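Input sequence (199 aa), recorded before submission:
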Amino acid sequence: MPRTERTAVTERPLAERLLDAAEAEIVEQGTTEISLRAVARRTGVSHQAPGYIFADRAGLLTALAVRGYLVLDEAITAARDRLGAAASGRETMVEMGVAYVLTTAERPALFWLLSRPDLGGDSKELRQARGKAVATLLDAVRGAMDDGWHPGGSADDLAALCWATVHGLALLHGDALRELTDNSLEATARSVLRALVSD
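Predicted structure, token format:
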């Protein structure tokens, strides 16, 4: 690695580098095999270094779950913002859902971890990150309701329905989904979500 590249990598905060390594480790080895020692080895630091930041394996996975919620919230917020205020509430819901599905496909380690909360722990940061993503979703659901989608329904129930739908699409991504359609993941997600928010 050229000196300038090595400098750029090592100047990044160690916690971020360890989380990057943890993501890569989960993709290659799965969540059951991940350890602080393996993450340290992948990062190129002493095997004690991760423990100084995350305390233990559960702490590392909890921090990675925080990252997961923040990444998803950033993706769905960006999708909403790209459409702008002129977009209908239903159209916004569709594009935010597509962004969720595509992001989970691009960052599978984060998605797997959010599907297995028992592997990590709990923290104020995790509750805040999860709450931020939920608040973004609820705001979009209310916008869709204002646009005529189940106007007399429960925003909480509809948000749960939306989250379950995109989560299910993400779980089906791969061979299972190809049994149902030849369309791309993005096209399938958009079609399913349009059906969800239709009358």
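Checked by second reader. Confidence is low (pLDDT under 50) at residues 1-9.
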